[in-house]
Write a structure and sequence with these properties.
- The protein has about 325 residues and is an alpha/beta fold.
- It folds into 2 domains: about 90 residues, Alpha-Beta Plaits (2-Layer Sandwich), CATH 3.30.70; about 230 residues, EAL domain (TIM Barrel, Alpha-Beta Barrel).
- About 40% of the residues lie in helices and about 25% in strands.
- The strands form 2 sheets. The protein has an 8-stranded mixed β-barrel, surrounded by 4 helices. Strands 2-3-1-4-5 form a 5-stranded antiparallel β-sheet, covered by helices on one side.
- Helix 6 runs parallel beside helix 8.
- The longest helix has 17 residues.
C-alpha cells in the first residue's frame, strides 16, 4: 500500500468562519459552493472546499465577510489566517512538476586525496515543460507551501537511483528524513528500484540533509537502520553544524561524515575553522566513518585538509554539478 503523502491529489481546504456576522453569511456561501460544485461537505461553522473554488471564495470573503475571522487548514494541520492561502493556490504548478516527473539529475564529483574520482553526488534539477531549469529554492518552497515536500523528495530519490545506474562509481543521494513516514513503506519502492536496476547496494550512499530539521532522532535511526539492513551506506551532511555532539554521531553511526562547507572555505587561514575541522575529523575516525570535506574551492584549503587527514573532497575546485552524460 502506497503512502498518501507521496501521491499528488487535488487539495481540499477546510474553512472555519467565526463571529456572528460571518456565520450569518454561511448559508449563502454554502449554496453558492453547491451550485459551483466545489463544496465537499459542511457542518456547523466549518466546511471543506475543493481547490478549484478557493480563489473565488477568497475574493468573496474579502468583499463581504470579516476576512480576519475566516481561517483554513490542510489535513488537520494548524488553523491559519485566510490571507496565507493565496500562496498555496498560486504554487499549484508544483503539482505538475511532480506528477509529470519534470526532474533530472546533475552530478558533482567526489575525489580522493590523490584527486581520483571516488563517487558522484547526484543533485536534482527541475524543469519547465519547455526544458528550461527551475531554481531549486523555488521548487522546495512551493512544495512545502502545498504540503508536497514528501512527494517531491520521493521523486528526487527515485530519479537519482535511476541515474546512479548510469554511473560506474558510488552515488551519493540526498533525502529528507521528515519526508518518510515509515521506512518499511516509504523506502520499499526505492529498494525495489535499485534491485530492478541491478545496483549493488554498496554503490548507493543515502545522504541525510537538513533541509528539514530532524527533531525525532529515533525516527532517523530507524530510517538509517533500514538502509543498513538492505546493504546501503549513508552519510551525514553538515557535520559541524547540525550534528555537533559526539554522542549523537555515535548513535547514528554514519559511514561518511561531511564537514560543512562553512568550515571548509577559508580553513587554511582560519584558526577557529581549523579547530572544528580537526574535531570533526577525530569524531569520524573514532567511529570508523570516512571524513569528507565539501565545498572546497581553493587549492590552499584542499591541501590543508588533505594534510590534516581528510580522505574525500567535493567542491568547485574539482568540478561543478553537470549533466550525467558530461560527468562520467
Amino acid at each position: 500500500m502506497g503512502c498518501n503523502a507521496c501521491i499528488v491529489r487535488d487539495l481540499r481546504f477546510e474553512i472555519k468562519a467565526e463571529g456572528d456576522f460571518n456565520i450569518e453569511m454561511l448559508s449563502g456561501v454554502i449554496e453558492h459552493l453547491v451550485r459551483r460544485k466545489t463544496l465537499v461537505k459542511s457542518e456547523g461553522n466549518q466546511f471543506i472546499i475543493k481547490e478549484s473554488g478557493m480563489m473565488d471564495f477568497i475574493d468573496f470573503s474579502q468583499d463581504h465577510m470579516d476576512f480576519n475571522r475566516v481561517f483554513f487548514r490542510l489535513e488537520d494541520s494548524e488553523w491559519r489566517v485566510l490571507t496565507e492561502v493565496k500562496e498555496i493556490v498560486e504554487n499549484q504548478w508544483i503539482d505538475e512538476v511532480i506528477s509529470k516527473g519534470l526532474v533530472t539529475c546533475y552530478a558533482q564529483p567526489i575525489l580522493t586525496a590523490d584527486e581520483e574520482i571516488y563517487a558522484y553526488e547526484l543533485l536534482a534539477r527541475f524543469l519547465n515543460e519547455d526544458g528550461t531549469l527551475i531554481f531549486p529554492g523555488e521548487i522546495f518552497g512551493a512544495a512545502k507551501s502545498r504540503g508536497r515536500l514528501y512527494a517531491l523528495d520521493r521523486l528526487c530519490r527515485m530519479t537519482a537511483v535511476r541515474y546512479a545506474a548510469l554511473l560506474d562509481k558510488k552515488a551519493f543521494i540526498n533525502f529528507i528524513p521528515t519526508s518518510i513516514y515509515s521506512p518499511e513503506h516509504c523506502l520499499k519502492s526505492t529498494v525495489q528500484l535499485a534491485n530492478q536496476l541491478g545496483l549493488d547496494p554498496n554503490q548507493l550512499v543515502f545522504e541525510v540533509v537538513e533541509t528539514e530539521k530532524v527533531d525525532d532522532i529515533n525516527h532517523l535511526k530507524s530510517i538509517l537502520a533500514y538502509y543498513k539492513e538492505k546493504g546501503f551506506h549513508y552519510a551525514l551532511d553538515d557535520v559541524g553544524e547540525g550534528y555537533s555532539t559526539l554522542e549523537l554521531l555515535e548513535e547514528l553511526k554514519p559511514h561518511y561524515m561531511k564537514l560543512d562547507m562553512k568550515y571548509v572555505q577559508g580553513v587554511a587561514t582560519d584558526i577557529e575553522k581549523q579547530e572544528i575541522a580537526k574535531k570533526s575529523l577525530e569524531q569520524a575516525l573514532k567511529m570508523g566513518a570516512v571524513p569528507l570535506a565539501e565545498g572546497v574551492e581553493t587549492q590552499e584549503d584542499f591541501e590543508w585538509l588533505r594534510e590534516l587527514g581528510y580522505q574525500l573532497f567535493q567542491g568547485y575546485l574539482f568540478g561543478k554539478p553537470a549533466p550525467i552524460e558530461e560527468s562520467n
